[in-house]
Amino acid sequence: MYDESRDIYDRALSVLPGGVNSAVRAAPQPYPVFAQKGDGGHVIDADGNRYIDWIQGLGPLLYGHDLPDPVTAAVQRRVSEGPVFGMPTELEVEHAEFVTRHVPSVEMLRFVNSGTEATVSAVRLARAVTERNKIVIMQGGYHGAQESTLVEGGPEHPKPSTHGIPQSFAQETIPVPFNDTETAKQVFEEHGDEIAGVLVEPIQANSGIAYPENGYHETLAQLCEDAGALLIWDEVITGFRIGGLGCAQSEFGIDPDITTFGKIIGGGFPVGAIGGKTEYIEQFTPSGEVFQAGTFSGHPAAMAAGLEGLKYAAENDVYEHIDDLGRRLREGLTEILTERAPEYTVVGTGSIFKVAFTRADAPPQSDCCVNGCRQDPECARFSACPKRGTDAQQMETDRYARLFRPAMRDEGVLVSQNQFEANFVSYAHTEEDVERTLDAYRDCL
Ligand SMILES: *Cc1c(COP(=O)(O)O)cnc(C)c1O
Known about the structure:
The protein is of the alpha/beta class. The protein has helices spanning 3-15, 69-80, 90-102, 115-130, 167-170, 181-191, 216-227, 247-252, 278-281, 300-315, 318-340, 397-410, 431-444, and strands spanning 35-39, 42-45, 50-53, 108-112, 134-138, 151-152, 159-160, 173-176, 195-200, 230-234, 258-262, 272-276, 345-349, 352-356, 413-414, 423-424. Residues 114-116, 119, 142-144, 201, 206, 234, 236-237, 262, 272 line the site of pyridoxal-5'-phosphate.
């Protein structure tokens, strides 16, 4: 049934490390299926198997695998007019105008080619602007494959989370637990005048999904303001997904100094962006002194897909649809868990969802929280539910990877490739997809 994928994986292992070009793709057991093509909310693998796809490119696909006609037309026209120029194009200006019109804190932005590039440049910018070195990050957060943020441990003993990063680099990063205001305050008390910025995801969506407790982001914003550090929101995954075109910052009412984007802002093509207040973003070269450059930055195909995709969302009921299906999934899953696995937790918000394989020894979630965990202190399960990305490490990861996920795949449903990543709803998904997915969960849990 997966023979073709197996054969390709066999070949891949000889020429690509681990058989893939990004680590998480090799997480599926016993080996990944290879994508052949997409069809709306579905994907078809190399053996011709069709799946309901909740991976959705790991976040960039607001529309599933078929872009809306105007988006496809714009991308095709751009590609036919020449792939890249090394000269500016009007399209980049238009995309930047669109983003600055819709995202409250963004007055100006620089496009790059990935979320990683965006966070690298944001950190460099914060260090330059403040003339300080230290960056506060959240344990269990993810900001791409970069030196300043692949750091784990506590505030006192940060250490690289991968080989190849010098301990001296990690020394400039301060990892703190998400949703822990006390530790954040202590760190600022001790290091306030050395901290260039706090880099935080509005919702920890790469290992969770952990929703912020009430007031947490306000505390971080205040600490930054008092210490003269920059608040950097990493909206690579939440941008143009949570909070609609205003992004998560409009939903939470926070006004970051700098915001990083990626994923949806390029409509499925490689992209990233650093946005924020003019006084900061203008510090990038050539208007300022902070070096920043890229051969492919502002690439026409990515700009066309991103801009036309967002324009389409402005004119259609895209967010209503995906948020509605997200809610149905979470409600349905909450019911299923009450019956089958009360120790597990439905997490997520808007068009992001997941069943976290927690080991909660507490009343079932349906009693208190029918739409995913919102960190409601009144909830009977409050203390048992995941609060931070690192909580995902305590989950039943083997049961997820070895038993549950392969069973779902056999039922024709692809959920996140490991227990840490989120599932994404697209505009192409249907109520039928939701029903079939809930049936599969019922059978596989
Ligand atoms: C995906 C992601 C990144 C990295 O983006 P890439 O395009 O994969 O480099 C950074 N931050 C967050 C929050 C992300 O979800």
